Amino acid sequence: xxxxxxxxxxxxxxxxxxxxxxxRQSENLELIASENYVDYPVLEATGCIMTNKYAxxxxxxxxxxxxxxxxxxxxxxxxxxDFVNDAERLAIERAKELFGAEHANVQAHSGSQANMAVYFxxxxxxxxxxxxxxxxxxxxxxxxxxxxxxxxxxxxxYGVSTKTEQLDYDExxxxxxxxxxxxxxxxxxxxxxxxxxxxFKEIADKVGAYLVADIAHIAGLIVAGLHPSPVPYAxxxxxxxxKTLRGPRAxxxxxxxxxxxxxxxxxxxGIQGGPLMHVIAAKAxxxxxxxTEEFKEYQKQIVKNASALANALIDRGFNLVxxxxxxxxxxxxxGKKGEGPSGKKMEKALDKAGITANKNTVPFDTRSPFVASxxxxxxxxxxTRGMKEKEMEQIxxxxxxxxxxxxxxxxxxxxxxYVRELCAKFPIYEELK
Length: 433
Ligand SMILES: *Cc1c(COP(=O)(O)O)cnc(C)c1O
Hints:
By secondary structure, the protein is an alpha/beta fold. The chain is built from 16 helices and 17 strands. It folds into 2 domains: 43-124 and 179-289, Aspartate Aminotransferase, domain 2; 296-424, Alpha-Beta Complex (Aspartate Aminotransferase, domain 1), CATH 3.90.1150. It is 43% helix and 14% strand.
């Protein structure tokens, strides 16, 4: 069992910070759509002695006789890798089985590095790529100017349609035909609807582009069959392992067999050195847990909770982007400048009431991303705590009260007390306190 006694003795300042964070995670309503609470085994693995091991390379190598990759031959640059090889082999095999993929690279340190590896594997600097714009729900690494993706490549970006605030595949097809990108990235960080990966495949085929699907947010839903999988269609699928998948903070890349060699080479030595073997062990555990019936039930409840929260917010007069949600998240559109508070202001007020969420741009936002006109809410973390539809209704009411009394710190502190009471009924990490 984990305890922090040694940290307490050695570094009281860091101990204080960890305990403060533990208290914050316990006493607040965590509505950040990309966050979750990992299980103890995942927590144990991320703190385990595999952090000591250098293991550049892979646990497999190409056999000279058959040309096939085999775990019998270790492709590491260091000795002593037998046990970390076991951990990485398990992570790879579980990832392949869970997603039905031909190959899995489990070494990416994060979702961003997973995307970097894929771009570096198939694009040359200056090549044209197409991704969803940040303000419409895409991720920074899908071509934003401040990210490597926008710096190294010529980027064209699609967004949602003005009318429906959803992806319009005919529009995207037309745009792709006009722009002829070499790579199309689909997937999002703030899109509340189902993404039609099959349609994206048709678009990519039409223009001869590589198709990459980034399922960082929805990986858990895909595992549970609640969202269609891009694995049959995309050349590469990237994901984080710490969002709905509820694993350690890290990345994962799936691809067709024909890209295995170029992908592996691009990850290491292309953009990384030694893999984080303790994190890979934790990924293996999370992937094992994701195979269980319990995990599927958990994902179902995430979606039910999101739907309940969205309906309760709509009932209270909030305007949701695209009118609702099909997945684990939703975006409240607070209105243009002069019409309603900014996302920044709302985020701060929610924080004072013990509700953690993030400001987010909404489609066609007139404010900058640092101010933004929206709030993004997600249910994965609350669902892990055991909350259900009834609690979602109560949380929507808290959010409405915060909105109505956004300037009133006393009222916000009062709401905070109710939030704490609710959180106390759904304890987390009790053994760590
Ligand atoms: C979260 C996210 C990422 C990046 O993950 P990091 O681990 O923070 O680098 C990439 N793509 C999408 C769509 C995401 O939502």
